[in-house]
Amino acid sequence: MVFGGATAPVMPPAPLKLVTVRRGDRGEVVKKLQTALGFTGNDVDGDFGINTQIALKAAQFTHGLTTWMFQRPASDKMPSSVRPE
C-alpha cells in the first residue's frame, strides 16, 4: 500500500526450518522433497525409498554437490539422511 508517496515496509521472509529426512522416513516433508526433485502424480507418495534416494543423489551430482557438502552440518557430524548404507 502507498500512503503519501511512501511504500509500506516489506517483511523479510521467514527463516527456513531445516529438517533431516532419511531413507525409511514418511510424511509431508518427504512429499515436499519428492516434488522438488521432480516427482509427479502417484510418485509423490511421501515414502523416502530407493527412488527418492537415487533422485536426491542425481540432483546433488547435477548441481555439483557431494553428499558431504549437501548434508554436512556445522556440528561436523554427517546425518544419516543420505549416508551410504
CATH fold-level name of the domain at 21-71 = Muramoyl-pentapeptide Carboxypeptidase, domain 1
Which sheet architecture does the biggest sheet show?
2 strands, antiparallel
The helix/strand series, from N terminus to C terminus, equals EEHHH
> What's the tally of helices?
3
Q: Are there runs of 5+ residues with pLDDT below 50, and where?
A: 69-85
The strands making up the biggest β-sheet line up spatially as 1-2
Shape: elongated
> How far is it from the N-terminal to the C-terminal residue, by CA?
54 Å
Short description:
The chain is mainly alpha-helical. Helix content is 32%, strand content 5%. It is built from 3 helices and 2 strands.
Can you walk me through this structure?
With 85 residues, the protein is mainly α. The chain is 32% helix and 5% strand. It contains three helices and two strands, in the order ββααα. Strands 1-2 form a two-stranded antiparallel ribbon. Strand 1 and strand 2 form a beta hairpin.
Write the layout of secondary structure elements.
Blueprint: E1 2-3, E2 6-7, H1 28-36, H2 50-62, H3 67-71
Antiparallel strand pairs: 1-2
Features:
two-stranded antiparallel sheet, Muramoyl-pentapeptide Carboxypeptidase, domain 1, mainly alpha, elongated, 85 residues
